[in-house]
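Hi U.,

Before I forget, here's the chain from the pilot set. I'm dumping it here mostly so it's searchable later in email.
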Amino acid sequence: MFEMGRGKARIAVQMNESPHINLGDFAARFGTLAAAVAIFLVFTLITPRFVSAVNVSNVLVQISVLTIISSGLTISVASGEFDLSVGQVAGLSGVLVAGLLVWSKASIATAILLPILAGLVIGVVNGLLVTWLRIPSLIATLAMGPIALGLNYGYDGGDSIYASFPQGFYWIATGRLFGVVPVPVMIALVAVALFYVLLNRTRLGRALVATGANIQAARLSGIRVNHCRRVALALSALGAAMGGVILTARLGTGQPGAGDPYLMDSLTAVFLGMTVFHPGRATIQGTLIGVVIIGMLDNGLNLLGAPFYIQNDVRGIVMIAAVSLAVLQGEIRFF
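Structure:
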């Protein structure tokens, strides 16, 4: 388990004296944002292709799936719960949509909706395990991941589904609105907007944040904390399932393990986001900064021809740095 607290900026104002700026608080709040700008500038100077219109568009498309999955995970973390099953849920929904299109000849709408609903069901089960059986979310979702993977292998026999999908399905990954805006980017932006409004502009969102900040205080104030935790885990799985569907459209195949790497990346994005704007608090806008940082690092290293294992090392280092910064600032405590 972990605790989150909001960073408090102290502003001392005295007569005939200018306000004192706490450099430590400033660095904690905007250090990650400054790092994102630095990464952008470094890759821009090293390889001019990094800022080309084509490459920027490619980066936005590449991070679209991660954006959706990370946004859903942000809701879970904001409520004080971890969801370690998002990668397997994304993989399951991706294989389900492929199987429904190829084997069952389902309509595109049905093939997309059913896997998303399946992901939502897994999220609901996660929530029930946490609130009814009082299993810590780390354990419940860690166990649910292999279960989702087992269902995945049971459905497709452990093999990837290689076949031609209907052209309308590919559109959600390769299409462009008005011939300019990539469809997956637009879907990701809509998902981000919806999750942002939910977390910041609704009564439920305020209850979720209050539950994550101090569950006992939230309970005493009349908030249905268990309901909030169930909703948060359900929305986390929902985001993972949506990302998995788009991932299959991008890959052109249904692969059982395609979603696995997104657990590490989404956790990294969320933790990076917790070091910016509102240190110690999971926010959609913060997570979006984290996703952009990961996208820039991956793309920049690819342009430089760095081996894939270097990218994995960089992800791990970035996650350690993000969590360390929050822990050293006293904004996150693990116990």
